[in-house]
Amino acid sequence: MTQIDSSPPAAGPGRIILLNGASSSGKSTLARALQARMPTPFWHISIDHLRDSGVLPMARIRSREFDWRAMREPFFIGFERSLLAYVEAGNDLIVEYIMESDAWLKRLAATLAGQDVFFVGVHCPLEVLEQREIARGDRPIGDARRDFHRIHSYCRYDLDVDGLADATANADGVIAAWMRRERPQAFDWIGENPAG
Fold this sequence. Notes:
It is a single chain. By secondary structure, the protein is of the alpha/beta class. The chain has one domain (10-192): 3-Layer(aba) Sandwich (Rossmann fold), CATH 3.40.50. The protein contains 9 helices and 7 strands. The chain has helices at 27-37, 47-53, 58-62, 68-88, 102-111, 126-136, 143-148, 167-179, 186-192; strands at residues 2-3, 15-21, 43-45, 93-97, 116-123, 159-162, 182-183. Strands 3-4-2-5-6 form a 5-stranded parallel sheet, with helices on both faces.
């Protein structure tokens, strides 16, 4: 194992802290806490940011003029490939994502092969996920339950965190573990074991 440099990239590739957790598990709260506490500048990127920024023609998708099912896969693939472009340009990223399937995980690992990706699992009890989902009112009911039962089952993490814990304490724990990280990392293993 080799220690990885945590100082800012000097015109080299950036680094990624990748948060995977069910809908409403606390990824966004943790990402904001990380961004506020990291010693160097990190972008905070998520699918929600794209959706909320108006990138997608949401009114026409909601009216069913455009078929989201046909648009969905290219949208997510494009998002994943954009992460590679950002880090290759030297940007550090905190990325929220929901690994909907083992195939998505393997695809992202292949896209980011060779990059410095620190993979964090954000865990939260099902009853809390469902309460948060209802309280938020901006998620289809049932997404949290669907995510809870599958998204961690095929993942191997560099670090697991409790989504119910204090966000600042979680952020400090992630930063400390990120600063100590070594290669190979979880994403290295996933990329090298596509059938595993």
